[in-house]
Specification:
- The complex is a heterodimer of chains A (194) and B (162).
- Helix content of chain A is 57%, strand content 0%.
- With 194 residues, chain A is an all-alpha fold.
- Chain A has one domain.
- Chain A is globular.
- The two termini of chain A are 15 Å apart.
- Chain B has 162 residues and is of the alpha+beta class.
- In chain B, strands 1, 6, 7, 9, 10 and 11 form a 6-stranded mixed sheet that branches.
- In chain B, a hairpin with a 4-residue loop joins strand 3 and strand 4.
- About 4% of the residues of chain B have low confidence.
- Classes of the chains: A mainly alpha (194), B alpha+beta (162).
- The interface between A and B is large, with 54 and 41 residues.
Chain lengths: 194, 162
């Protein structure tokens, strides 16, 4: 996520690789895989599934893309299509693996980072993380996935995760607003010290 | 809560970006994309695109080809598939390049060989005795693809280090 509004969205870069692939550039698919696998990995893991399930789901989504590539009319939609497919495949693979059929977003315990990670040793990060973990699971999942895209992708990613922004333009949305309110009300938060 | 709703309707600002960057940083450290996942995906897509049979790595001579190593000796890999078997020998040239000698058996019609590297594809023809040579080939992770003439499924090897 960049602070620069002129940054090219992930969706746009993905669209150009996908278009090149459809125009016969076989290597462009490799670029697309490099570009989007991180956001897809976190889409799967944000649903609270084990690593193996997430790997299967992400890999299967890519195979589905190749099978269905002619059906995606607008290359700009390819990122959203993959996110939606990963979500569906995560649910399917997880079910096939015999795990309980529950709302996956509610079960995040498996993928929650350990606060001892390097990043969280900084005070500001720890405070932020505490409030992040207090967010509803669906908000945590949304922000996690969005964090791996660019700012202009916010609306498309929200849409793909079935949490549409409901307004025009990349507004902050409910989840980030909640997090910012929590930070503002926290006396231990020293304001932007990240 | 109205504060939340007002905040929610505002455009993203730099602090939102900082927050999201931090969230990404934490997850990148705590739950990284598994090593090899993107390579596995690319491999699966190539197999799918070629409708190829995946050859089995039978034998690794000298040192393990599956470990990244600065090997200095000749190493030999053997692959087998339903339609053909291949023995590939790599002789080091320098730190960046190797000479690849291969021998394809079990298949009569002409076969074209591709070495797919991270930077591109090198093609070679297999001669009447089933031999082929690529000299030089860049070191690194590669997949060999064997494309028999006619209506025969191509054969692809797992990713190996040459």
């Amino acid at each position: 996520m960049s602070a620069d509004d002129t940054v090219q969205s992930l969706a746009t870069r993905a669209a150009s690789s996908f278009k090149a692939y459809r125009d016969g550039d076989v290597g462009a698919m490799d670029q697309l895989v490099e570009l989007l696998t991180p956001v897809l990995w976190h889409t799967a893991r944000a649903q609270g599934v084990p690593e193996g399930v997430a790997q299967d789901a992400v890999q299967t989504a890519w195979l589905r893309l190749v099978e269905n590539s002619e059906r995606i009319k607008d290359p700009q939609a390819v990122m959203g299509w993959l996110i939606v497919t990963v979500r569906r495949e995560t649910w399917r693979v997880n079910k096939a693996a015999g795990r309980e059929d529950h709302d996956l977003d509610e079960n995040l315990t498996d993928t929650v980072p350990d606060p001892s990670t390097l990043v969280l040793r900084r005070e500001g990060h720890r405070v932020l993380w505490g409030h992040f973990e207090d967010l509803p699971p669906k908000c945590q999942a949304l922000l996690r996935v969005i964090a791996f895209a660019e700012r202009p992708d916010y609306a498309a990613v929200s849409e793909a995760l079935k949490m549409p922004m409901g307004s025009i333009g990349p507004t902050r949305g409910r989840c980030l607003a909640k997090l910012r309110t929590a930070l503002a009300n926290d006396p231990t938060w020293e304001g932007g010290a990240l | 809560m109205s504060t939340d709703r007002d905040l929610a309707a505002q455009p993203l600002d730099d602090f939102d970006s900082t927050i999201l960057d931090t969230i990404a940083e934490v997850f990148r450290a705590a739950d990284p994309v598994p090593a090899g996942l993107t390579e596995d995906i690319k491999f699966a897509l190539t197999v799918q695109a070629l409708h190829a049979e995946v050859a089995e790595l039978q034998r690794v001579g000298a040192e393990s080809a599956l470990a990244r190593s600065e090997y200095t000796h000749t190493q030999t890999l053997t692959f087998s598939a339903e339609t053909l078997s291949v023995m590939v020998t790599m002789s080091p040239i320098d730190a960046d390049e190797v000479r690849v000698d291969g021998w394809v058996t079990g298949h009569d019609s002409p076969v074209r060989v591709e070495i797919r590297t991270s930077t591109g594809t090198i093609t070679a023809e297999v001669d009447d005795d089933g031999r082929f040579t690529v000299d030089p080939a860049p070191r690194g992770l590669v997949r060999f693809v064997f494309l028999p003439e006619g209506d025969v499924r191509p054969v692809i090897t797992p990713t190996v280090e040459i």
